[in-house]
Recover the amino acids of this structure.
């Protein structure tokens, strides 16, 4: 049975499998620490978004192994299984599932923006009182957050090759404009994808200590 409509957050989380996550950070951290980092990023995202203010839907990759990350989800939340051939399809499916369960409005985040806070999410929900879409820009040309008043899944219908480029935000803005959706940009936050990102975030006092510890040289951890 669907729940009553309520603000909700979908957390798109990639399973923290060694050798399969944060590969651009492998030269800095190695595969094992990158997997540990992904675990900590998932934990941070769920701690940030879980609580009494919003319903939370962790959306995990359908791996099903012991390191798939499902154990990190708070007790009692509904887990969503990501499905689709590319990120756009997986986002569209997760949004569809959450709205079908009574969510609304909805904020979708990943786990790559470690300085995201509950206040950022609250600001997105506040903006959705008068806007159709909220986008949280990332310096690399993507977005770390997308808020929706309704299931506008067409916003994820980008060329699959674009999801790893600096065109994502601009392409999404073009889709919102074409659809006549009232859109607001939120606070820019850096994603953690590269050694350059790691260096910049280590200088940011907003970086959570647990994540900072995993980014520092091994001898200082």
């Amino acid at each position: 049975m669907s729940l009553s409509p309520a603000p909700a957050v979908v957390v798109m989380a990639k399973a923290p499998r060694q050798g399969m996550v944060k590969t651009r950070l492998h030269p800095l951290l190695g595969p094992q620490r990158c997997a540990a980092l992904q675990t900590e990023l998932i934990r941070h995202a769920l701690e940030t978004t879980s609580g009494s203010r919003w319903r939370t839907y962790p959306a995990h990759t359908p791996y099903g192994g012991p390191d798939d990350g499902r154990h990190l989800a708070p007790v009692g939340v509904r887990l969503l299984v990501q499905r689709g051939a590319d990120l756009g399809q997986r986002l569209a499916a997760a949004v569809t599932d959450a709205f079908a369960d009574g969510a609304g409005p909805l904020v979708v985040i990943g786990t790559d923006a470690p300085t995201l806070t509950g206040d950022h999410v609250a600001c997105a929900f506040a903006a959705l009182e008068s806007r159709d879409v909220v986008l949280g820009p990332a310096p690399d040309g993507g977005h770390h957050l997308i808020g929706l008043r309704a299931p506008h899944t067409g916003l994820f219908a980008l060329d699959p090759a674009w999801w790893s480029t600096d065109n994502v935000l601009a392409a999404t803005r073009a889709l919102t404009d074409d659809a006549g959706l009232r859109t607001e940009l939120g606070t820019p936050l850096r994603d953690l994808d590269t050694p350059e990102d790691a260096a910049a975030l280590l200088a940011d006092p907003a970086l959570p200590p647990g994540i900072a510890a995993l980014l520092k040289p091994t001898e200082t951890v």
Q: What stands out?
A: The first helix runs from residue 26 to 29. The helical segments are 26-29, 31-49, 87-100, 118-127, 168-178, 195-202, 209-215. The radius of gyration is 17 Å. The mean pLDDT is 91.
